[in-house]
Amino acid sequence: MLPHISDPSSPFKQPGGILDEIVANKLIEIKEARLKVGVSRLEESELFDRKCYSLRQSLLAPERTGIIAEFKRASPSKGIINDQADAAGVTRQYADAGASAISVLTDREFFGGSIKDLIEARSVNNIPVLRKDFILDEYQIIEAKAIGADIILLIASVLKPHTIARFAQLAKSLGLNTLLEVHKLSELEESICADLDAIGVNNRNLSDFSVSVQHSFDLVEKIPGNFLKISESGISKTETILELKDAGFNGFLIGENFMKEADPGAAMQEFSSRLKTGR
Ligand SMILES: O=C(O)c1ccccc1NCC(=O)[C@H](O)[C@H](O)COP(=O)(O)O
């Protein structure tokens, strides 16, 4: 039986609002996928037995921008953003424009994404690909490797610290990079563990959807130096990236700012040129 999230022995927190809805729906989807596909079929996939691209190497490569460019069709806060976009075409343009990594939403119900979008992005890119989803079960980590992802996301407002440690250990054993997402200091302090590669400060409060880049500036000094530091959400100006870099961030996760345009790849190209020339 699936654990109920209000159960004290549950591996999940109960953050409330949309996150509880997302978790409840995701648990049903995972149960169905386990029955329909199963772990052994995932492990037989051609992409499962591969060496992942290193997030560290790509983020620190001087010829790249540090931007993790996101393919995001819709979101709970904005509704539909760009539901007709082509995952292969857009993400290839992101990479050509200097993205250090690609993020692909694979949640269908709340973000209009899919595993197919990630497989398409993988097939045309040779930089790290982040599976942007709500990871609640080991099955999804094995699935992430099998569909071509290099990075998984663990969200501290959803997962209890012992669950984060367990999932990070599994991801590492599969050669995946792990990004821990926090929004506030208490989440960072209770969730940090050795098997993580990167800490992302989400500037968006996932309960009320308010966004402030100040969260990144407030937390950057609290992140130990051995972890990559990534600022996530609400970034739309090149000046903000320069300020975040000065503050110590290595990576910048940007979705809506590109995806809201008719040609997201061209928007990333233009942004990247402005970043290089400092305009
Ligand atoms: O974006 C949302 O509305 C949202 C709602 C609930 C949970 C997660 C949500 N977004 C995931 C993200 O963190 C963003 O897609 C990502 O950081 C990019 O943000 P942005 O550049 O603001 O699109």
Short key terms for the protein model shown above:
eight-stranded parallel beta barrel; two-stranded antiparallel sheet; 279 residues; Indole-3-glycerol_P_synth_dom; alpha/beta; TIM Barrel; 41% helix; Aldolase_TIM; single chain; lyase; tryptophan biosynthesis; binds ligand LARABZUK
Describe the 3D structure.
- The longest helix has 20 residues, at 17-36.
- It is built from twelve helices and ten strands.
- The chain has 279 residues and is α/β, with parallel strands linked by helices.
- It starts with 16 loop residues before the first helix and ends with a helix.
- The strands form two sheets. Strands 1-4-5-6-7-8-9-10 form an eight-stranded parallel barrel, surrounded by five helices. It has a two-stranded antiparallel ribbon with strand order 2-3.
- The radius of gyration is 17 Å and the shape is globular.
- α5 links the parallel β4 and β5.
- The model has no long low-confidence stretch (mean pLDDT 96).
- It has helices spanning 17-36, 39-43, 55-60, 87-96, 115-124, 138-147, 161-173, 185-191, 214-219, 238-247, 256-259, 264-277, and strands at residues 67-71, 74-75, 79-80, 101-105, 129-132, 151-155, 177-182, 198-202, 228-232, 251-254.
- The protein has a single domain, classed as Alpha-Beta Barrel (TIM Barrel).
- α4 packs across α5 (115-124), α4 (87-96) runs parallel beside α12 and α10 packs across α12 (264-277).
- Bound molecules: ligand LARABZUK.
- Residues 18, 70, 72, 75-77, 202, 204, 206, 209, 232-235, 253-257 line the site of the ligand O=C(O)c1ccccc1NCC(=O)[C@H](O)[C@H](O)COP(=O)(O)O.
- The ligand O=C(O)c1ccccc1NCC(=O)[C@H](O)[C@H](O)COP(=O)(O)O is lined by residues 18, 70, 72, 75-77, 202, 204, 206, 209, 232-235, 253-257.
